[in-house]
C-alpha cells in the first residue's frame, strides 16, 4: 500500500462559540440523525444541540470543538483533541 502525507494547507479555525452553528436540533431529532449521547457534551446547558451543515450532512458540535473552514469554504467541527494534534497556529 502506498503512503501519503497531507499537504500543508492553511485553514481558518476557531473554538466554537454561539453564532458559529448553522442551527439547533432538539435532542430527540439529533438522536434520530445519529448523535451518540454517551459521547456528547453539549457546549451549553440547553436542550438544543448545535450543528453545522457539512458536505456529508449535519455534524453536531460538542464542547471544545473547533470550527474549521476548509480550502473550498466548507465548514465542519473538529474535536479539540484531534485539532490540537493536527494543526499548528500560524497567526491570529
TrEMBL record:
Task: Report which superkingdom the organism of origin falls in.
Answer: Bacteria
Query: Which named protein is this?
Result: Uncharacterized protein
Annotated organism of origin:
Oxobacter pfennigii
Amino acid at each position: 500500500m502506498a503512503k501519503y502525507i497531507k499537504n500543508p494547507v492553511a485553514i481558518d479555525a476557531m473554538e466554537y462559540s454561539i453564532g458559529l452553528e448553522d442551527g439547533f436540533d432538539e435532542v430527540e431529532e439529533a438522536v434520530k440523525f445519529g448523535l451518540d449521547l454517551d459521547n456528547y457534551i453539549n457546549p451549553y446547558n440547553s436542550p438544543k444541540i448545535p450543528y453545522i451543515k457539512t458536505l456529508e450532512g449535519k455534524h453536531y458540535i460538542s464542547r471544545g470543538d473547533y470550527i474549521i473552514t476548509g480550502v473550498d469554504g466548507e465548514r465542519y467541527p473538529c474535536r479539540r483533541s484531534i485539532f490540537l494534534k493536527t494543526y499548528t497556529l500560524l497567526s491570529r
